[in-house]
Amino acid sequence: MLELTTVSELKNWSRTQHAAGRRIGVVPTMGFLHQGHLALVDEARRRADAVILSIFVNPLQFGPSEDLARYPRDLPRDRRLAAESGVDALFVPSVATMYPQGSEIRVAPGPSADRWEGASRPGHFTGVLTVVAKLFHLIEPDVAVFGRKDVQQLTLVRQMVRDLDWPVEISEVPTVREPGGLALSSRNSYLSPDDRARALVLSRALQEAHLAWRKGESRAAAIEDLVRRELDREPRVVVEYVSIVEPETLAPVATVDPHTVVAIAARVGNTRLIDNIEISQGIP
Prior knowledge:
Blueprint: E1 2-4, H1 7-19, E2 24-29, H2 35-47, E3 50-55, H3 75-84, E4 89-91, H4 95-98, H5 117-120, H6 124-139, E5 143-147, H7 151-163, E6 169-173, H8 193-214, H9 220-231, E7 237-245, E8 261-268, E9 271-278
Parallel strand pairs: 1-4, 2-3, 2-5, 3-4, 5-6
Antiparallel strand pairs: 7-8, 8-9
């Protein structure tokens, strides 16, 4: 596995792959890899001949009071996991490499970024789309793989690719979960054992929504109320939002159909977690 740190190295690698007729798959990450990330690598390997994984804790997508400084990092472990999973190249740039002095142009998302995560984390998606756009420009991938857990991010990246006519296929991988149902996240490392147990209420609440729909409930307001009641069973879980939305724009809906998305953001102790399901699928 090659490790690349500069723009010139990255462009040279990409040009070499394309010249050899290889399809390139990219997996953008912030590192501290877990099985969810490795599932993205597996999908990229299925869809491409050469896989590159980026590790970059992107300061643009963190607010001033968020966890940029303490975001978990373990590059030696990430190197090992990436190599073992079949990654061909690892891109590990510095902040100065991605945002040289004087860098000021940003990718501004549209109104669909103002809801849910965007409302809770102002400016977050500007940072996300800017770094993804830079990676797409530098690598020129044929396919990029993202996880379903960050459903609003996935939706906005798809919209960016569509609106800017980018020739990149966006592939989606279902959320990978711990045995109890907790969605895998690098931020799970913040959870104490007690808070990890409390955090299971997120997946339980989503499963309650699924079961209610299976029993015939199609009113979004009723399903939201049920989800909130389940979340309220854990007093240390502070809900930021419960959203019941259609899957293309994540606009709120009044009536639930099989493709409707139910998404949650909540703080468990001091840790902010997100999760979601497509209503017809539930928690595996």
